[in-house]
Amino acid sequence: MKTLALALALALCHFYQLSAQEHEHRSAQPLSYPDIEGYRSLKTDLHQHTVFSDGNVWPGIRVMEALRENLDVISLTEHLEYQPHKDDIPHPDRNRSYALALEEARDHELLIVHGSEITRSAPVGHSNAVFITDANPLLAEDAITAFKEAKKQGGFVFWNHPAWHAQSPQGTPILSDFQKERIANGELHGIEVINSVDYAEESLALALEHGLTIMGTSDIHGLIDWDYTEKGNHRPITLVFAREKSLEALKEALFDGRTVAIYNDLWVGREAFLLPLLQASIQVKSATYVPKTQVLKVVLENITSSDLLFENQMPYTFYSSSPVFRIPAMGSYTLQIKTLEALGSIRLRLKALGAFTAPRVQPVVEWEVEVP
Question: Cα(134)–Cα(157) distance, rounded to whole angstroms?
Fold first, then answer.
């Protein structure tokens, strides 16, 4: 007899298949972020679950959700060891979820990364191995063997939700000897600083200290619509700056640490990538003086799916505005700057209050603006 979870999965799969037949792949809020110089910005979610571990939906649903949100890459990282639906969906082949997602995405440009989650109690914790070739050998009795196998297959491995209170009661990550050894052996390469709705600045500190790639993921088990969209949120993603849209380029970028984690208006990444992303995200549409004044009106347009919050860092003050202002997603904002004299150009200097390059460190972004 089917469980409620399986019945729900099949019903939802039928619903989304009807939507797919009608080519309704875009939601009301498809995600959009600009490329930066030299790289394509690939929108990825590399931590998701289906009924092939402890999720509540069929793998095809994950593909359709990603298409609706305009993602570039996803990975279905089923728990290797934790299989609560195995009585209803027995699958001795741990690659089955990946195979189904790959088939669903066959006629689309969405990239599917082969991945699985190594699930153990502390101090090992949970880690995702992506870009693997076969999940079955990772189902090893010994955790060290599982990590060695992921490395043997060329996998990129990142530490999941290290601040999760179920494994770390204080809600802060504990870097055990196990993780230290995995890093030293080249078997652990990244760390989630954003998982679901949680941002852990302590995880960011570990990423910077140990050279780990900064990751943001949804860790979705239910529906994206129910857990995020209907609550007015976007799913967390990792923007990966790759030389092209391909699995090979994506893998190379992840190993090189070229990422920014994004959840709504929270952006977390190394300065080398976060600064150019912020600069590309705001376009100066016009700059003109109010007639017979020294008040310069500068219209700024936000071309991303995130609201962006800034604070004035210039020697000039604003007219009729707080020094802190928000530019809405896909919207614009008009600054009125009291320049005290007519200028031929001005350098905008704004601190991005929702962005972090280190714990509690917010970058200052500059734009050179010509005044006709």
Answer: 14
